[in-house]
## 1
Amino acid sequence: VVHVDDSVDPIRDLETIQGELCLKDASVLASVLENESNRVRKEKGIGRSTPVKLGDAFTEAYDKCKQLLESNTPIQTGEFSAAEVDCIKDWGMITTKPQIYVVNLSQKNFIRKGSKWLPKINEWVKSHGGGQIIPVSCEFEQNLFELKDDKEAQKAFLQQCKEEALAAGLKGPQAEVKTMVPRLIRAGRQALCLQSFYTAGPKEVRSWTIMKGTLAPQAAGVIHSDFERGFIKAEVCAFEDFKTFHQGEASMAKVKENGKYRQEGK
């Protein structure tokens, strides 16, 4: 794919993307002010021609967001009170979201774990609110994926990549080359404050996704709303404990024997 600017400059691209996101939020912010004004007018029975006074928290949050966006700065980098955050979270602003920067490298640079752009990208991210940077190589991932049906060929490919890394001067774990897809998935879930729990029975084991901090009754409600309404208790164990003690058996017996099985009530 040929770049629209016909050159490689990730810092320019970051500035462009951030600018577009800030412009989008600025347009949303304009409608937020109008909607809040209309809501207050309707609530107080005030005509459209009459000026309306909005709440202090809303006004402060709006002014801060407007100032940030006009300076091409994401809202997430600003400082807000708890009351202001309560206002902002309902506005649906893109630049309030946590960000992960995925840097696509050539296979050669990915193997040797270096690029002239990485330090510059790191500095840019630090100066624009921070965020996790994950270097990947679509070229490497594609080559690895195409060998998915031939495990020996896949193993030989990874060994070849490791030898190239060793030849480039990398040592130990640094010389290992592996897919970044699992790390991307974990980083995305962590940024979104998601976690999973598992249910297991004779027919299936299933994963359910919940927000971190979700209480047991609400977690049960993800499976079925009736489970939340009629929740009494759950018998649970930590996944790491299950991996440690189950010894390959399709049973919780060993987990119970080691005192890692417990009941959680409301």
## 2
Amino acid sequence: LSPTMLAALVLSAAAALVSPAGRSSRLLRPGVNPVTMTAVETDQYNQARAAHILVDTEELIDTIREQVEAGVSFTEVASTVSLCTSRSRGGELGWFSAGMMTPDFELACFEGEPGSLIKVQTNFGWHLIRLDDKRCAPTDITPAELKARIDAGDTDGVQFVDVRNPAELELASIPGVDWINMPFNEYSEWGEPVVEGKLLDKEKETIVACHHGMRSKRTSQFFLQNGFSRVMSLKGGVDAYAIEADPSIGQYQNEMKGDECGTCG
């Protein structure tokens, strides 16, 4: 990237950054849950791994594309000029599931070919997407599937994460495996260490559970976006497990409110 071109890109991005904060862009659809699939339901692409550069104008995104195709580092340009908060990671978005991103962005990824550069406009602006991969992968594991794996001893190398609060663990817990307790409402304490790979192994299969499956779903998406490759959320949570797989663990009413409960999750 020539000094002149880099300066032009930086100046353009800097001017755009004074726009309203609402354009900082996380690409997530507000109030929409990711499309979920269990192991037996997965028969189409439902996850993609990508990086992107976000700018204000089509002219600028076309210029950036020309530079990247000419050999300039995508990561370097994203870190320098992208308006998305992902610029701190060189534009990396990690893996994300169908239903998670804004529709036009997501459609471009699931219809694109891995290894390609894709230009698309969304309500956030103009994106240059580097589509790294896409796959068919389960996002949920049902209580019956989990119970069968535990009974069969098919748990070697699996990380089991329970994001409920300690008081909830005393009321009902799934036996047969060792659960790592990472309370959802203590994200500020474990979030950064997880991203840095200090608390969990990103290469291991990871199964996440909570009370009703909502906190675990949000945590699973966080893991996927930060480098974990195989993550599933227990569908319906510990409550569904007690109903469908093992009534002996019992059920309880969650009396907590606010962020701790994660919308009664």
